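Async update (no meeting this week)

Hi team, since we skipped the sync, here's where things stand on the single-chain job. The sequence we agreed to prioritize is pasted below, unchanged from the tracker. I ran it this morning and attached the output directly underneath so nobody has to dig for it. Comments welcome in thread, and please keep replies under the output.
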Amino acid sequence: MSEWCPSHGFEIRLAAHAEKSQVESRAASSQKIVQARPRRLLLCLDGVPFEIITAAKSRGLFDGFNEPSRLLSPFPTMTNIALSQMLEASAPVGYESFYFDRDARELRGGVFKYVGRRTPEKIPSTYMDELDYQEPLPFEFLIYVAPETIWRADMRRFRERFLNAPQHRDFFAFLKGTDGLLHIRGPERLEVALRSLDVILHEIRKACGDETEIVLFSDHGMCIGEQRRVHLQTHLRGCGYEFANPLRGRLKGRRRIAAPAFGLIGYAAIFCGEETDRSELASALATLEGVDFSLRRDEAGGVIVEGARGRARIVRKEDARGQLYRYQPVSGDPLGLAPTMRALDESFELDGQGFATDAAWLARTATAHAYPDALANLYDALYATRVRHTADVLVSLCDGYYYGATVFSRFIRLAATHGNASRASSTAFRFRERAGLVDNMPGFVSNQVLRPVNEGDPYVVFTVWNSRQDFLNWVRSDAFAKGHAQSGTLPKDAYPKPNVLEMHEVVQDSTRTDLPPEAHGGPFHMH
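Output:
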């Protein structure tokens, strides 16, 4: 079973990377096992959706890894936004390298970012300071022109860089080639690339042995299929809007806007002149083919969601239960949350004012809804510092539509894209290698990790053995020490107190009526 993990709860973070060469300790009963944990390879695959990595694993790839978990990417679903949020790094200046500077009131950046070396002004977020490997700067652009060639070169460079790196510290790598392959060539070519990556990871495992743990994750998902341009600028000009740069001073006219167009992606960020009415702009956007909905702040601290399916308001408050959200349809149901509200009401999870906890909304929308964790995700898109220059109006396009620079669309045909708030773009993945050492021990039956339902109850690691002696052989083995050094798949809140070991003997098993009760073996002590 996969675990849904919103980006703000992402447990890999840079903490894992920052623990280089530190000693980890875990308490078992009254005995503490203290030793250095294995080296970690943290590998981010740009733009690989949860569904594709799950399908690859079902076909036999990444056989040494646990089942993938879903990971929610924040809206707009773009690499720098996602990784800066996941890894608790500084916010990028804009949504892309071509952005609107709210202080200067003008458009800045652009293609020049890809020319020359990575100088400080070309580094969008501090998470990049932690990277031990990323593609050379020109690759960021060329991956969308010659994706197979760049991918192969990128993989060779990554493999060599990792194998030649110091063996005593963690290694954090980012591979952008997967994003280019899926954008331009589609899932079939990405499948080939994942097979080549699997081969390289096996080579790394052979070279490094059990002294390296590999963690794979992605930054966002992808909407796969034919993509069409949304004619945003043409439409808004037809509605009387003027695209101006700069937007300084008190410009005459109530319809001056800027909308940076760069990569071919599924969202748009619009910045308004001082006299531009945001609600009028949202109404104009709602009639444009390819627009799913737009977001804007209101004066009372809420978020207005508006699209062809209607208008609604998102409100947040905090109390002893944490952060709570209310969805207020004004006309229609733009996010399709009416059935979710009814379910929350029927289960008494809505309070008297119509608020439910962030966790309750997440649980109801995580696995089946079109917009996972929509209320928290969309609210934070305007009120959290996801970028330093937040748009006045954010637009999420329908799956199958993109906005961006016309010059790019003339020589690039998209097979997929991302950026919007839909499930396809929002669903990334994470998974790690199994420690696996216990699986081959004589007498081992199964292992389960049980997550508590009630707050304050403990996590339980439930292991079944054929006999007490089989278990004793395990805890006294070198494999036991290595397996515990590689532990770390549980969140930090799973360790509020020292671990407690309990041993129970099977006296009845409904699946094995022929099984005689196990003889009472007396008290057990770890030492």
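Quick observations from my side:
DSSP finds 16 helices and 25 strands in the chain.
The radius of gyration is 26 Å.
Reply here if anything looks off.
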